[in-house]
Specification:
single chain, about 200 residues, alpha+beta, 2 domains, 5-stranded antiparallel β-sheet, about 35% helix
């Protein structure tokens, strides 16, 4: 076997190997994407009560992107529906904590009441502000059932600031950031119901 033949076979085998790798990767992409969507879905949708929606909220993103609010930024959101009726929105919110940005997922029912809050990303001090990443989270659950008007604007603050909420022990700045972001999201929802759920807010 001469050198030219050997090189030709090598090139052919390399091409076949690259082709096979590309084919396997390309064929696997839909399955990998589906698995990632399932993981994202479980991570994002566990704030919504079971049986409260029948659509795929992650496939119904809201027309929100980097909307600046007084104390936070709305990064995006999703709509949950049942039988074609809006049931809840999931808002991704970002605020500034003690160590850096905190990203929250805030679920609000069509009646304007908070369904839950979950931390998606944070870099706060472990065992202090970092506790907001725990799930389930007893401190974050305190906000469930609240609305923009319950408590009133003055109540959306720490008790040390004449508000209604306790803080995470040793994490005043983190606690303030979360409370302000949740209040911002509820206020935005209350002021933009048509944009978010397609109707006015009703108790």
């Amino acid at each position: 076997m001469n050198r030219a033949t050997s090189v030709g076979i090598l090139v052919l085998l390399s091409g076949l190997g690259i082709g096979a790798t590309y084919f396997v990767q390309h064929a696997s992409e839909p399955r990998i994407s589906a698995q990632q969507r399932l993981i994202d879905s479980r991570n994002l949708l566990d704030l919504l009560p079971l049986g409260s929606y029948d659509n795929q909220p992650l496939e119904q993103p809201l027309a929100l992107k980097n909307i600046p609010l007084p104390n936070s930024t709305l990064l995006g959101g999703y709509l949950a529906t049942q039988a074609g009726q809006s049931r809840a929105v999931l808002l991704r919110s970002q605020s500034l904590g003690y160590e850096g940005s905190i990203e929250l997922l805030i679920a609000i029912g069509a009646n304007g009441k908070l369904l839950g809050v979950k931390t998606l990303k944070q870099s706060e001090t472990p065992a202090l502000g970092g506790k907001i990443a725990d799930w389930p989270n007893a401190w974050l659950q305190v906000f469930t059932g609240k609305s923009r008007t319950e408590p009133g604007d003055m109540g959306w603050a720490l008790k040390k600031d004449q508000g209604q909420f306790d803080q995470i022990a040793g994490a005043t700045i983190t606690s303030r950031a979360v409370i302000s972001a949740v209040h911002d999201a509820l206020r935005y929802f209350d002021e933009h119901p048509q944009q978010l759920i397609g109707s006015e807010v009703h108790e």
